[in-house]
């Protein structure tokens, strides 16, 4: 739900804001300037809440990208929300693990898995009967 020129789009699904990148290799400007500004605007519009960033289209994250995600996490948590990242491609997942960011961020294989865990985290609802896994 952002303009067509944006590198980021979002929609609401079951009370969670789902953010997606519209290109597979966002450049430094996207991560250093555009993403933080859009994340901030988005949270101002929504007034907070839970956020899922679906990275399934992203094959590389720069250091500016990491900084943007840390900033987003701080903004979401300051407004009482939870942040989850999903769909990390192998290179992105490897970078998160090497930097030990897998201990900072709640990472999930798929957006669907993350959405299920949002319900578990917020409502104690556990649709499958199993304990959600951390990736």
Question: Describe it for me?
Answer:
The protein is of the alpha/beta class. It has a single domain (9-123), classed as 2-Layer Sandwich (Transcription Regulator spoIIAA). The chain is built from 4 helices and 5 strands. The protein has helices spanning 28-46, 63-78, 90-98, 111-123, and strands at residues 8-13, 16-21, 50-54, 83-86, 106-108. Helix 2 (63-78) links the parallel strand 3 and strand 4 (83-86). Helix 1 runs parallel beside helix 2. The chain is globular, with a radius of gyration of 14 Å. 30% of the residues are buried.
Mean pLDDT: 80
The number of helical elements comes to: 4
- CATH topology descriptor: Transcription Regulator spoIIAA
CATH homologous superfamily assignment: STAS domain
Helix content, binned percent: 40-55%
Report how far apart the termini are.
28 Å
Biggest sheet descriptor? 5 strands, mixed
Order of helices and strands: EEHEHEHEH
Shape: globular
> Poorly predicted ranges (pLDDT <50, ≥5 residues)?
126-135
The total domain count is 1
Radius of gyration: 14 Å
Number of strands: 5
């Amino acid at each position: 739900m952002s303009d067509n020129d944006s590198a980021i789009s979002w929609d609401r699904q079951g009370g969670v804001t789902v953010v997606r990148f519209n290109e597979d290799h966002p450049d430094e400007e996207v991560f250093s300037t555009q993403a933080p500004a859009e994340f901030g605007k988005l949270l101002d519009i929504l007034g907070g809440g839970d956020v899922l960033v679906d990275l399934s289209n992203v094959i590389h994250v720069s250091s500016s990208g990491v900084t943007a995600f840390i900033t987003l996490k701080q903004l979401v948590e300051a407004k009482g929300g939870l942040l989850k990242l999903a769909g990390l491609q192998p290179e992105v997942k490897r970078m998160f693990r090497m930097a030990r960011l897998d201990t900072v961020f709640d990472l999930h294989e798929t957006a669907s898995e993350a959405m299920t865990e949002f319900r578990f985290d917020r409502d104690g609802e556990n649709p499958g009967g199993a304990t959600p896994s951390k990736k």
